[in-house]
Each structure stands twice: as C-alpha cells, then as structure tokens.
Amino acid sequence: MRTGVWQHSEVVSHWDRDENAAAYQRFCEDFAYYPSGSAALVRAAAIATGEKVADLGCGTGVTTRALVSRLGDSGALWAVDPAAAMLRVAQAAKWPQQVRFVLGDIATLVAQVPPESLDVIVCASAVWLPPNRHALLRKVAQALRPGGRFALSIPSEFIGESTHLLDESATRFLTTLVQVRQELALAPPLPPQLPIEPPSLGAWRESLSSVGFARIEVGVHPYVMTHAEWAAHLCLPVVLDGLLPLARESQRQQFAQQLLARLDPIAPAARPWHILVAWRG
Length: 281
Prior knowledge:
single chain; alpha/beta; Rossmann fold; seven-stranded mixed sheet; two-stranded antiparallel ribbon; 44% helix; globular
C-alpha cells in the first residue's frame, strides 16, 4: 500500500477489505445517501465538458459515475483511492476510456499529473479522514491550475453543524442505539488515537485560505433518510469497526437485529451534507 498525506494505514485498513467494499456497494445500490450526496457535489463543482478532473477517495465509483455523466466523451478523469478492495469494485464496472484508476492517495496523483494541470478535484465524504488536513490541501492546490476548483462534501455533524441531531426523530434513533449497545454490554467507541484538528466549518475555511484558495462557497445538501437507512449505514463493516470496536461478529449481528427490531423503519431523520467549493487563486 502506498503512503502519503492522504492515508493513514489504520484508516485505510478498515476500508481495504472485500467484505466492506461489497457491503458499501450494496448500500449505495439500495439507498440514496451516498449517490445523492455525490450528485449534489458534482452539481456544485459545475463540471464542464472537456475538463481534467480527479475524484479523490473514489471508493467503489459512486462519485466517479456522476462525474462521467457531466464530462461527456472528452476530458480526462482520474479516480483515486488508497483501498485496493474498494478500487477493485469500481474497476469491475464498465467505464469510458477517459477514466483512469489510481491506487494511492493525493501524493500518488500529484506524481502522475503535471503541476497545476487539473481543472477540478472532488472529494466526496472522505476528505476528513486524513490525519493532516493542511498537507492534503497543499497537495490539492499543487495539482490544480490557477482558478481550478476543489469541491468537497462532509456529513454536517463532522464539522460541528449538528443541530439536526437534536430533532425528535434523530434523538429517538440515537437513544435506541445507545440502549441496545448498553443492553448487549458492548463497549462504546474508543477515544481517537490520532491528533484531531478542529472540525469546524471555520477551520476548513482557514485551512483552504492558507494554501491559496481565494474564494470559498458553502452549501448544504438537505438529505433526509429513514431510520432503516440510517441503521443500514451503521451496520456497514467499516462503521461497526468504530461503533463496536471490541465486538465479535456474532455480537455485531445481534446488535443489528436488535436495532432494526426497535425502530420505526420509515421514520425520517435529517442527515445533511455540507458542500464546500474553493477556487485556487
């Protein structure tokens, strides 16, 4: 596995499992959470026919497909991910010739393209994973041409915009989750082992500005998911790694069954995305 500012080996190892890649792909086929967020991100990035674009943290190709639909037959698209299992699922689909898959991170991408050559870099729900945000953003700025765009999406609660979790429906879901975990005597998530930079919206603005992004626009994609979709997302193997870090597989299955049994599956809950688009000066 390549190293660089994108990845931390422990983070990547959780994603780089065939079972997780397959489960993630099924979730994206069954539910709109990630496809809807990717479509909103690509719209915000204002992708134009013929542009040179990179999809950073492409996973199984959900955002890549949304980008292809905007690029047309011209242009070029690099789909980059450090988790080989996720990339294998993406590569198994049919793609036009202008799509190139890259196993690695932002440093790998920068080594493969000329400096200041890309028009757009997008990163859907992955930019918050690297341990060093500033190093990542410096590499992104290095790859973009002057006036090029960096478009990223983050679940709103991951940047401290979490008032939607105080809604009655969301509170009911989260209370049920905690109760099931306690009744099954399952340990809560462990404290983070890596230094965590301030996840606020203001911190993202400051970081982007510090590496040369002169204009930053912020939007919100107001996604609403049912409790059944939320539970299915929590039961992805990579999510359970953090939610139930010490649980055996049998305990994870019991947790999933108990959670689904106690919820109203059609109850709605807001799960918005924050979308940032930044223009390099």
